[in-house]
Every structure is written in C-alpha cells, then in structure tokens.
Amino acid sequence: MLNKVKSEYVSWIVLLGIIVLLLEFFFFNRGLIFSLLVSIGMIYIGRKWMPKTSGKLLFWFGLIFLIINIFNMMTLKFFLLAILLHFFIQFVQSKRSPAHLKPIIKESSPSIEKETVIKKESLFSNQLFGQRKTPEHSYEWSDINIQAGIGDTIIDFSYTVLPKGETVIFIRNFVGNVHILVPYDVEVSVNHSVVAGATEIFEYQETKIFNQSVHIQTPGFSQAEQRIKIFTSLLVGDLEVKRV
C-alpha cells in the first residue's frame, strides 16, 4: 500500500512537472526552446569541427550556454522544490509515527537452493562525455544497453564472434554519432529515433531527419538463425550502419 502511494505521488510530481514545462515554453519563457536548440546546435557543430580551435570553443560555449539555460528554467526549480518538500514530509511523518521493530520468529522450513547466476562484463559503461569504441583486437561479444551524454559510439563486429540467435544493441545518446559495422552474412533490423540528424543504413539514406523514427530490416531477418537487432535513440546526431 505504501509503495502504491509513493508511486502515485511520483506520478503526480512528474505530471505537474510536464505541465510546468509546457507553461514555461509557451507562456512564461517562449524563447527557451530557441535558446536550448541554439546551445545544442553549438555543441553538435563544435563536435563536428573538433579538434580545431573553433570547434572546441563552439563546443564549450554551447555546453556552458546549455547548463545556464537549464539552471534558469522554472521547471528545474519546481522539481527541486518538490524534492525538498518530499523530504520534509518524510521527516515530519517519521517524527509523528516512528517505526517500531519487533522480532519475528519463524519456524524452520526446508532449505531452498539459491539459483546460480552469472554476471557478465559489459563492453561499454554509461558515461556523460567521450567516445565509446569496441576494441581493435579480438574480444568476447556481450549485448549492449547504454545511455550516453555527449560523444560518438563506434561498434565494429569485425573482431568478435557473434553467438547463435539474436544479438541486441540499445543505445540512447544526447548529442553524438553512432557508427555500427556489421558482417555481410548477418541479417539486421534497425529501429532508429532522432530529433535532428542524418541516417545511413546500408542503401537507405536520409541526409536530414527531424523528429522521426525509422525502421529498416533486411529481407531474411525473420527467418535467420543469427541476426542483429539495433535500437538507437538520439537527440542530435547521425546514425551509420554498414557492412564490413
């Protein structure tokens, strides 16, 4: 019951936060969307022009401009106030109704064997800045599920052996490009969502995409014993999937 109340409380906070964000965009600060897009555009173009000095300056000025815009948002102040209010309510409730701990004695029951699990190392870890790239030597494949901030991601299947069945890649990125190199004899399905960028998946090309989702699949994907399923979600950036 307590977990349900907390879940409903969080849902209401998120809903009110969305309403405050929309009010801020369309009534109180109409230039905010433009400012955010300009700063994101500066970061993206700066990444493209690196390592030139102009690219570095554009990137860092865009990043600073973005952070300033976020901290000036009324929505951020609302969420901070909601968090402080939540902790205050929790503190008051703990004082009014302190928890009483009582020992619970249970009769012994037949022991149940614990299920054995294996923890596998991930190829990538979540990171806010920097490039992510698979090793340029033989490595053991592991499905990828990452969230990133700013930077490119390069996945090359040339140095690994794919397992039988379905290989899955999930990449969610804020600003940056994704390059995926797949073998010729493997079937591929790509689900790509982007706010602004370009897409090249084998023979399919879109030089300018704005707020679209793309689903491309090779003809034999559904019947293939060995296949790769790719899910990518980018705010700003390009996706390239090609054969090697």
Automatic annotation (TrEMBL):
The keyword Transmembrane helix applies. Keywords: Membrane, Transmembrane, Transmembrane helix. InterPro entries: Cell_wall_LiaF, LiaF-like_C, LiaF_C. The chain crosses the membrane at residues 12-45, 57-89. One of its GO terms (cellular component) is membrane. Pfam families: LiaF-like_C (PF09922). Residues 129-241 form the Cell wall-active antibiotics response LiaF-like C-terminal domain. NCBIfam families: LiaF_C_term (NF040535). This is Cell wall-active antibiotics response protein. The lineage of its organism: Bacteria, Bacillati, Bacillota, Bacilli, Bacillales.
